[in-house]
Amino acid sequence: MKHLISMRDIDRGQIEEILKEAERMEHLLNKGKPLKLLEGKILATIFYEPSTRTRLSFETAMKRLGGDVITMDSKSSSTMKGESLIDTIRVISGYSDIIVLRHPNEGAARLASKYSSVPIINAGDGANQHPTQTLLDLYTIKREVGKIDGIKIAFVGDLKYGRTVHSLVYALSLFNDVEFYFISPEELKIPKDIKEDLRSKNIKFKELTDFIDDIDVLYVTRLQKERFSPEEYEKVKFSYRITKDLVEGKRFIIMHPLPRIDEIDYEVDNLPNAKYFKQSYYGIPVRMAILYKLIG
Ligand code: CP
Q: Which of 51, 178, 185, 235 is deepest in the core (most CB within 10 A)?
């Protein structure tokens, strides 16, 4: 694996290797000793869209491994003077050993990988893919449910534009006997190509408008406001909300890639099955594992 652009580029064996390496990284982190596994290496984070978790957890992961970080965003760089993505990548791949890129255009990370002399990690390209989020989601399921094969998972929310949902559905389809439930209003339904992919693999799924609770994982997503026209957004806002009454005492874990806007009530946060802050923490060992696999 030279780059990490899409979950479609890696197989189940490679996913399991990364999850295993992440467990080792979590164990090393828990020991609390400084690590030198990537000493002397430089990570460049290039973000053309806002981010809190992906950017800072990658930067933390690199520093925890003993490496260094340089960073660029579109607002304070020569992008403002009109410099292209391709030229930016050509320049920054000469400054660094690995690049993490977030860009609003689908396919941007793939394009960047063609012009980069160092590995590119896709940190989100439009509504397309966010593979490192998928890997940390899989890690969270493995750690908190205890298995990935055979789980029942319900996705709730903006299933149309939620790239984390698209990536995770694909990745889970590589595991055995996973059952999928897609809960959303009509306007936010899961795209047809994803359903076709599941059908072609004979994988069970159901589309619902009502909530269910005989599941192992409830995966909630925010409405991707930035990808709707103002008129479309007005129609779908406030169309779903996870309340304490709905989820308290249930056996399933609650996940969310975050940021949360108003789709999960704050009083859900302290329930034992609310795992979304732990999920964001797992971004550190998983991204340490990915960095180490690519340039260690
Ligand atoms: N989950 C996620 O990608 O969060 P950020 O947009 O804050 O990076």
A: 178
